[in-house]
Design a protein that fits this description.
By secondary structure, the chain is an alpha/beta fold. The protein has two domains: about 130 residues, Nucleotidyltransferase, domain 5 (2-Layer Sandwich), CATH 3.30.420; about 170 residues, Nucleotidyltransferase, domain 5 (2-Layer Sandwich). The protein is built from eleven helices and ten strands. Strands 3-2-1-4-5 form a five-stranded mixed sheet, sandwiched between helices. Helix 2 packs parallel to helix 3 and helix 4 crosses helix 11. Bound molecules: 5'-O-[(R)-(carboxyoxy)(hydroxy)phosphoryl]adenosine (KG4) and zinc ion. The site of 5'-O-[(R)-(carboxyoxy)(hydroxy)phosphoryl]adenosine has 19 residues, from helix 5 and helix 6.
């Protein structure tokens, strides 16, 4: 087991209530309660439903995380909780609970940027992952290419000018009637499909490392409506694989171009979309082709989890940082701000 502070991490920014105990870089427990069933019938995350479900789950989940880790709450050295970005009502639950716990146990508290959490996820599993690096962060709400010159020093090289990559997966899956969440549904449907069946456009905005996915949405909906009318709709597997390929192509090309431009040979990824099997395979191929090192968190640490928040918390705790208990959530927190 690695050394380092014993941190309890709490994540409630969207639709997963997640709590973990981490010692330095070692995950001792990582539990979550997914709200997928509660939101699925609405076809997306309903903020009010999310907040209430977090309230119901947070206490027992915290006890479970401590029990699985085999640690007592008095041994915990600090509490870390997501401060933003995310849904305000959802964030408030974990952040307030974390502050109350810190106050009650007289422990230091750390408010963590959710995207910094995603950035720390690969560090939990890969000893070799270290700056300077370029990191692709792709979730349901954000898509960014971040240059990291040192831990805690981030420069956003590019971001989406419209939808996030996960949002594109979710919206297109909903349009195709594949359900919620859309990313895993498209990933599954693509199996056995031909990624080259339909050539959807790859949007390349003027700024070389920015993304745009709204044009893909328009192009897919137009294509499906036209073909449906003609009675020539291709198999759903081909459609899903072709959509996935259009998104993955752009993410892979821009990430590695950014790494070249930044002069780094280390590339990493984080966020729910990094759980995508095609994206993982294509990133690995491209890293090998360019002779670069690639560090991806395993799928459970790619999607939202408490361990990544605890990991970022451990780093900030060791640097002597503390968040005052008067601090508030920031639903639109931006990495590096
Ligand atoms: O990081 P995350 O768990 O939550 C946010 O911070 O938003 O990311 C969730 C996003 C959703 O849009 C979901 O559809 C997408 O990640 N996602 C995937 C896969 N698993 C989750 N997208 C593509 N393929 C997957 N296997
Ligand atoms: Zn996330």
């Amino acid at each position: 087991m690695s050394d380092g502070p014993l941190i309890l991490g709490i994540e409630t920014s969207c639709d997963e209530t997640a709590v973990a105990v981490v010692r330095g870089r070692t995950v001792l427990s990582n539990v979550l309660s997914s709200q997928i069933d509660a939101h699925a019938r609405f076809g997306g995350v309903v903020p009010e439903v999310a907040a209430r479900a977090h309230v119901e789950a947070i206490r027992s989940l915290t006890h479970r995380a401590l029990a699985r880790a085999g640690v007592h709450q008095i041994d915990v050295e600090a509490i870390a909780a997501t401060r933003g970005p995310g849904l305000a009502g959802a964030l408030l639950v974990g952040f307030s609970y974390g502050k109350a716990l810190a106050w009650g146990l007289d422990l230091p508290f750390l408010g963590i940027d959710h995207m910094e959490g995603h950035l720390f996820a690969p560090r939990l599993e890969h000893e070799g992952f270290a700056p300077p690096a370029v990191v692709l962060l792709v979730s349901g709400g954000h898509s960014q290419i971040v240059r990291m010159d040192d831990w805690g020093h981030y420069e956003v090289m590019g971001s989406t000018i419209d939808d996030a990559a996960g949002e594109a997966f979710d919206k297109l899956a909903r349009f195709l009637g594949l359900g919620f969440p859309g990313g895993p549904a498209i990933d599954r449907e693509s199996e056995g499909g031909d990624p080259g069946a339909i050539r959807f456009p790859r949007a390349l905005p003027d700024r070389p490392f920015d993304f745009s996915f709204s044009g893909l949405k328009t192009s897919v909906t137009t294509f499906v409506r036209d073909r449906h009318r003609e009675g020539t709709l291709p198999p759903i597997g081909d459609l899903a694989a072709s959509i996935q390929e259009a998104i993955v192509d752009v993410l892979v090309a821009k990430t590695f171009n950014a790494a070249e431009a930044a002069g780094v040979t280390t590339v990493a990824g984080g966020g729910g979309v990094v759980a995508n099997r095609r994206l993982r395979a294509r990133l690995a191929e491209e890293a090998e082709r360019r002779g670069m090192s690639l560090y991806l968190p395993s799928p459970v640490l790619s999607t939202d989890n408490g361990a990544m928040i605890a990991a970022a918390g451990a780093f900030r705790f060791e640097r002597g940082e503390r968040t005052p208990l008067e601090a508030e959530i920031d639903a639109s927190l931006r990495l590096g701000s």
